[in-house]
Amino acid sequence: MESTEAAVGSSAEPDTADSTVAADADENGGNGNGNGRRIRKGERSRMRILDAAARLLSCRGYAATTLTDIAGAAEMQAGSLYYHFDSKDAIVEEVLSVGIDHARAAIDAALEALGPEARGSDRLAEAIVAYVNCIVAESNFTVANIRCFNESPPQTRESLAVPLREFTNLWVGLLAEGQADGSLRADTNAKVLARIMISGLNSLASWYRPGGELRLEDLARQFADMVLDGLHPAD
Question: Which tens digits make up the pLDDT trace of 156-210?
Fold first, then answer.
């Protein structure tokens, strides 16, 4: 595992967008000293860094993505990154954390749209479709998590252990719901199945490319159908 890159230098000036402060209190929504706008600009700069890092990490991986690369993709000076993050690993950890959040939000939205009366098998199918869409079409952050988690430093993996466990438990819960209401076969281990499913879904990040013969909508439904066919209760 490569060590975190050395600091570029604390004497570097912040990027122009982040250092500009407006004096107009009405425009700021603040008290006339520019603090309101400074906070908003700082947050925008932070998100620009994270967006750039997610794009690079999802394509290149952890080791091949440098702080200089991230700064260039964000159109910022390399030293400016240190006004927002302490290190490359701090950026990576935030990107990977957001990736988990994006995946969870996509699945939660799909389940909420189904309503509380949906069968467990239907909830599982919609969760699969939502996660496929998140991986393939919606979130560089989620793909970055899939690609970079095992490459990231031990402290990063440790800090993300709880949210990743909760994400796995979401799938375990969906399988258990289907087993409880009879819509999924009950003679399987939900914890083992959840891990197999997540691994299979995560593999899409490495091989599926939009624009090919298989449309995303068809891929998502086929994956869900294959899982449900294998878990259909015996007659």
Answer: 999 999 999 999 999 999 999 999 999 999 999 999 999 999 999 999 998 887 7
Cα angle 91-200-202, degrees, rounded to a multiple of 5: 15
- Identify whether the C-beta of residue 62 lies closer than 8 Å to the C-beta of residue 92: yes
Place of tokens 């402060």: 21
Q: Decide if 48 contacts 74 (C-beta within 8 A).
A: yes
Could you give the number of structural domains in the chain? Answer: 2
Residues spanned by the domain of 169: 88-231
Instruction: Report the 10 Å Cβ neighbour count for 30.
Output: 17
Token pair in block for residue 169: 């438990």
pLDDT tens digit string along 47-87? Answer: 999 999 999 999 999 999 999 999 999 999 989 999 999 99
| Token pair listed for 95 | 């990107």
Same domain, 63 and 126: no
